[in-house]
């Protein structure tokens, strides 16, 4: 097979061709018809792959991987009201979920209370939970053991405030802070790059992130204060290699900032975690996960001088690709989610969220969410892929692709470096430009039939399949607003004012903001009120570029 | 689909400041639709009183955010403001992505502000000519100030700059030594050079460069010497903005200078001269292409040039002789 | 040489949601189809959208929805259009909608609804067919 001529025959033997777009993965890499020993001959199995659980962790972060414990099956536990979300969480746990992700509604995401005029019509929107005050956090966490169940708060700009509420509720319930588990997404950089739910300019936002990091470092050693998220970059349009490069560059930026804030690298790096997308291209996704671990490990050791092996370990949560799902023939999404989930498992994720198939149509129903959960349980229990550790290691293709992902990543690292680092690149509109461009190209390929989407540009059918829809609760908004009005009426107004003044003072200085926030939420100050005062001090961010 | 009022009725409403009629009429002149010339004749007597401010600079210099603040200043002074924002069209599809309104949102609820986005469309003279007409419509609408924002400070935009009474050119510290290269161009068109993003590194150095370049230039006694104003037009807090008041004051100073020295007469003269040139060019071209249309001669001419039986100048001479000297 | 009138489209997002990928991609593809797109961006309110549509004399308003706010904001925009007698502009919506909401949206005043994953070609065709001089 090493015969050059045979090779050429194989390369030219295309079953079908999309011209120059033939056989490219989502990152735009041209994939060869066949990979062989020569494609990985430059790799050293010991230093480039290592053993599972060993540096550079290409083969996974645990020695035993899923043989000892499968990944965390983490599903969305959010619903409009905190008490309904609480019910949903308990139900999911009963069905076998082992972790929970919690989305917020639009007003909470944008730092506004449910009674804000701009929140009208959006309270409880997007399948997210509305959190205004400590009362909401109490209801949300009712009966859930805070030291056992890992809740992933999909919370960013408002993370410091939510963390304060979470800590305050734990203290009320007498749970020692050092036992608290969970994750705050708290990844502000990707908000400016893609997700766009920012309030303040990047630098004060970074200060708040560092305040939460330092606070967790000191008091909540089991809690993950930042989940560095590529998922949103990919959802906004970044290709897999761009997602990988931008996310890791963001991770390195948090490490630099932590060191600048006076922390030693090994004191906080082990608590950093990651969140990636499992997109359509099966092997590309696996290669992305493997490359992520290797680049992180090498950089942490070589550039940041990390000594603790846990600092070099990239722990990740993964989610199947919401943006790959279609409203047309929505049930096809079940299969998309399944192959994506399988790739995440073969890529060695620590935690996985499978999307509900009806997401492209509406907020998922209990039935579609259960199906998503069962998809993971079937992969874990029936497919046999967990029987051996990192089954794809040594595959000519997978290893070559992993290597290529790594190499291409460094090109983006250099570009970002040349722009003066991540924050400076944000301010110069670098991410907005690249991501908008990639999103455009992706759609253009679909439009022109150069990328197949079954049920859309191939095998299209006119008729709509009737799927069951979740019933929204139309009375929820009024109920939430009137509850909040009562809550605000019955509190110590002088105390609220004093707390807000404290927050203003601390914001202006450089002390850690967490103690003032915890005191404030305990004194019934609301999220919207706190963000409002911070905006006065930090100012509001407006994107200055348009692509 | 679009409902039609009579042209006379629309102009009547325009003069009563009706923004929908203004919008419709702008579409009409921008697309050279029927009655274009009639509209401009009806509108013309109601123009000539507004202050016309040109703002130009490279992409990313902060033109729109600065415009947003200047609108605020002019509104404080009790003026109604019209804004034309010109962006390039795609040379391939002819379409355009016009996103500047995003940065012009402080006044989105103010009826005293009328903003219009325009694609340059890239056809000969199209940008400049349509822009003249659009400004006139905005004047007739009752706007005391009309701001024209265009991209870049290259040769093409110089035409547009002739429209303005007072012309601002934006530069940023990031442009570094490019400023040296641009110096000559800037001096020609700028009445006020705005060093925007003056909070960035290198701003002091850029300021010194610009001032040095200006003092090295030769200006006659009593002539306006371009000013440099440092600004910060994008800030997350109002108190971090810089130089907006000073810029507004400098604009007023330039306006006072134009009136006091009667230099405004020269500005107006230049503007009409420029405009006539553009109209002539367009109209002549129309006559010629109309004459050629359907005769198959255009192809013949082109092919004879390619085959070197003829040269472009001889062909043009022959065409002019045929279609102009004979009247059509 | 009168130029053919370009079709002008205003593209925007309403409310607090910041997912602007769809709005941006559609804008770019409409531009590629030769249209002039006024992009108003995120976080818009009904009054501002309608005022911009009037000032720009657009032929089409395209609303991008994601988070289920379509039933709240659509009537507000339609009402604002009525208040300002804007009755000759196509109103389109794109995004994530349950099938059963589509007739409701059309009753509210949306001329045509395009669901997530639709091909832009169908949007371009619809606009070209329905915007007439």
Automatic annotation (TrEMBL), chain A:
<dbReference type="GO" id="GO:0031419">
    <property type="term" value="F:cobalamin binding"/>
</dbReference>
<feature type="region of interest" description="Disordered">
    <location>
        <begin position="1"/>
        <end position="22"/>
    </location>
</feature>
<dbReference type="InterPro" id="IPR016176">
    <property type="entry name" value="Cbl-dep_enz_cat"/>
</dbReference>
<dbReference type="InterPro" id="IPR006099">
    <property type="entry name" value="MeMalonylCoA_mutase_a/b_cat"/>
</dbReference>
<dbReference type="GO" id="GO:0004494">
    <property type="term" value="F:methylmalonyl-CoA mutase activity"/>
</dbReference>
<protein>
    <submittedName>
        <fullName>Methylmalonyl-CoA mutase</fullName>
    </submittedName>
</protein>
<keyword id="KW-0413">Isomerase</keyword>
<feature type="domain" description="Methylmalonyl-CoA mutase alpha/beta chain catalytic">
    <location>
        <begin position="25"/>
        <end position="540"/>
    </location>
</feature>
<dbReference type="Pfam" id="PF01642">
    <property type="entry name" value="MM_CoA_mutase"/>
</dbReference>
<dbReference type="InterPro" id="IPR006098">
    <property type="entry name" value="MMCoA_mutase_a_cat"/>
</dbReference>
From TrEMBL, chain B:
<keyword id="KW-0143">Chaperone</keyword>
<keyword id="KW-0547">Nucleotide-binding</keyword>
<dbReference type="InterPro" id="IPR005129">
    <property type="entry name" value="GTPase_ArgK"/>
</dbReference>
<dbReference type="GO" id="GO:0003924">
    <property type="term" value="F:GTPase activity"/>
</dbReference>
<comment type="similarity">
    <text>Belongs to the SIMIBI class G3E GTPase family. ArgK/MeaB subfamily.</text>
</comment>
<protein>
    <submittedName>
        <fullName>Methylmalonyl Co-A mutase-associated GTPase MeaB</fullName>
    </submittedName>
</protein>
<dbReference type="InterPro" id="IPR027417">
    <property type="entry name" value="P-loop_NTPase"/>
</dbReference>
<dbReference type="Pfam" id="PF03308">
    <property type="entry name" value="MeaB"/>
</dbReference>
<dbReference type="InterPro" id="IPR052040">
    <property type="entry name" value="GTPase/Isobutyryl-CoA_mutase"/>
</dbReference>
<keyword id="KW-0378">Hydrolase</keyword>
<keyword id="KW-0342">GTP-binding</keyword>
<dbReference type="GO" id="GO:0005525">
    <property type="term" value="F:GTP binding"/>
</dbReference>
């Amino acid at each position: 097979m090493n015969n050059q001529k045979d090779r050429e025959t194989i390369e030219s033997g295309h079953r079908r061709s999309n011209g120059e777009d033939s056989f490219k993965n989502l990152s735009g890499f041209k994939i060869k018809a066949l990979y062989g020993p020569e494609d990985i001959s430059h790799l050293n199995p010991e230093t480039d792959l290592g053993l599972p659980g060993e540096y550079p962790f290409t083969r996974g972060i645990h020695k035993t991987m899923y043989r000892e414990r499968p990944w965390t099956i983490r599903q969305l536990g959010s619903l409009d009201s905190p008490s309904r979300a609480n019910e949903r969480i308990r139900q999911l746990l009963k069905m076998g979920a082992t972790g929970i992700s919690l989305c917020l509604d639009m007003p909470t995401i944008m730092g506004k209370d449910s009674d804000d005029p701009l929140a009208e019509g959006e309270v409880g929107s997007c399948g997210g939970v509305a959190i205004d005050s400590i009362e909401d956090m109490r209801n949300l966490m009712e009966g859930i053991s805070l030291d056992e169940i890992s809740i992933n708060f999909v919370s960013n700009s408002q993370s410091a405030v939510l963390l304060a509420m979470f800590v305050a509720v734990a203290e009320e319930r007498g749970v020692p802070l050092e036992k608290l588990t969970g994750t705050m997404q708290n990844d502000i950089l990707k908000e400016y790059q893609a997700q766009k739910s920012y309030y303040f300019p990047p630098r004060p936002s970074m200060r708040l992130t560092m305040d939460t990091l330092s606070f967790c470092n000191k008091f909540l050693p089991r809690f993950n204060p930042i989940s560095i998220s590529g998922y949103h970059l990919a959802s906004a349009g970044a290709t897999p290699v761009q997602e990988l490069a931008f996310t890791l560059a963001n991770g390195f930026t948090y490490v630099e900032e932590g060191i600048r804030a006076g922390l030693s690298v090994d004191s906080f790096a082990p608590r950093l975690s990651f969140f990636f997308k499992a997109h359509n291209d099966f092997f590309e996704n696996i290669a992305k996960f493997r490359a992520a671990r290797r680049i992180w490990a090498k950089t942490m050791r070589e550039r940041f001088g990390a000594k603790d092996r846990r600092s070099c370990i990239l722990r990740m949560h993964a989610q199947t690709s919401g943006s790959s799902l279609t409203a047309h023939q929505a049930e096809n999404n079940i299969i998309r989610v399944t192959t994506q989930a399988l790739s995440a498992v073969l890529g060695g994720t620590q935690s996985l969220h499978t999307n509900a198939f009806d997401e492209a149509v509406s907020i998922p129903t209990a039935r579609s969410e259960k199906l998503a959960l069962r998809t993971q349980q079937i992969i874990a229990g029936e497919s046999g892929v967990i029987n051996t550790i990192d089954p794809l290691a040594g595959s000519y293709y997978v290893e070559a692709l992993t290597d290529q992902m790594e190499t291409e990543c460094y090109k983006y690292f250099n570009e970002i470096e040349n722009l003066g680092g991540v924050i400076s690149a944000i301010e110069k509109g670098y991410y907005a430009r690249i991501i908008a461009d990639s999103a455009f190209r992706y759609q253009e390929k679909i439009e022109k039939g150069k990328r197949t989407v079954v049920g859309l540009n191939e095998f299209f059918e006119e008729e709509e399949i009737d799927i069951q829809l979740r019933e929204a609760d139309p009375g929820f908004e009024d109920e939430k607003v009137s509850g909040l009005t009562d809550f605000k009426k019955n509190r110590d107004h002088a105390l609220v004012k004093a707390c807000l003044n404290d927050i203003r003072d601390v914001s202006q200085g450089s002390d850690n903001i967490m103690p003032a926030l915890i005191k404030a939420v305990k004194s019934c100050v609301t999220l919207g009120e706190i963000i409002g005062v911070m905006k006065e001090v930090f100012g509001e961010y407006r994107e200055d570029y348009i692509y | 689909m679009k409902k039609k009022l009579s042209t006379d009725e629309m102009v009547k409403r325009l003069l009563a400041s009706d923004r929908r009629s203004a919008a419709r009429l702008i579409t009409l002149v921008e697309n050279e639709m029927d009655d274009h010339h009639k509209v401009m004749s009806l509108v013309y007597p109601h123009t000539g009183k507004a202050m016309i401010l040109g703002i130009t600079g490279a992409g990313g210099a902060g033109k729109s955010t600065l415009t947003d603040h200047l609108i605020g200043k002019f509104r404080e002074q009790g003026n109604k403001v019209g804004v034309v924002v010109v962006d390039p069209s795609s040379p391939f599809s002819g379409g355009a992505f016009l996103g500047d309104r995003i940065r012009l949102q402080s006044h989105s609820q103010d009826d005293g502000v009328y903003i219009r986005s325009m694609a340059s469309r890239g056809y000969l003279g199209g940008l400049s000519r349509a822009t003249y007409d659009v400004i006139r419509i905005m004047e007739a609408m009752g706007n005391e100030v009309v701001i024209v924002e265009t991209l870049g400070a290259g040769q093409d935009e110089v035409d547009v700059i002739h429209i303005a009474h007072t012309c601002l050119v934006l530069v940023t510290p990031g442009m570094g030594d490019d400023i040296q290269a641009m110096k000559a161009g800037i001096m020609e068109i700028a009445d006020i050079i705005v060093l925007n993003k003056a909070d960035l590194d290198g701003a002091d150095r850029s300021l010194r460069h610009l001032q040095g370049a200006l003092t090295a230039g030769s200006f006659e006694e009593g002539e306006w010497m371009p000013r440099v104003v440092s600004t910060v037009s994008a800030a997350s807090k109002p108190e971090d903005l810089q130089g907006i008041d000073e810029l507004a004051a400098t604009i007023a100073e330039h306006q006072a200078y134009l009136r006091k020295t009667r230099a405004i007469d020269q500005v107006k003269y230049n503007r009409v001269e420029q405009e006539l040139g553009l109209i002539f060019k367009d109209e002549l071209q129309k006559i010629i292409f109309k004459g050629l249309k359907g005769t198959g001669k255009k192809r013949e001419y082109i092919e004879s040039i390619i085959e070197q039986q003829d040269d472009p100048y001889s062909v043009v001479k022959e065409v002019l002789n045929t279609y102009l000297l004979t009247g059509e | 040489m009168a130029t053919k009138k370009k079709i002008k489209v205003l593209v925007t997002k309403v409310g607090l949601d910041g997912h602007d990928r769809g709005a941006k991609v559609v804008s770019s593809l409409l531009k590629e189809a030769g249209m002039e797109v006024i992009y108003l961006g995120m976080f818009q309110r009904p009054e501002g959208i309608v005022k911009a549509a009037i000032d720009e004399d657009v032929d089409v308003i395209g609303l991008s929805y994601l988070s289920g706010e379509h039933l709240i904001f659509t009537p507000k925009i339609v009402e604002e259009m009525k208040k300002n007698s804007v009755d000759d502009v196509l109103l389109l919506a794109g995004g994530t909608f349950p099938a059963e909401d589509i007739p409701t949206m059309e009753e509210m005043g949306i001329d045509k609804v395009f669901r997530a994953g639709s091909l832009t070609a169908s949007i371009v065709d619809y606009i070209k067919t329905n915007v007439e001089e």
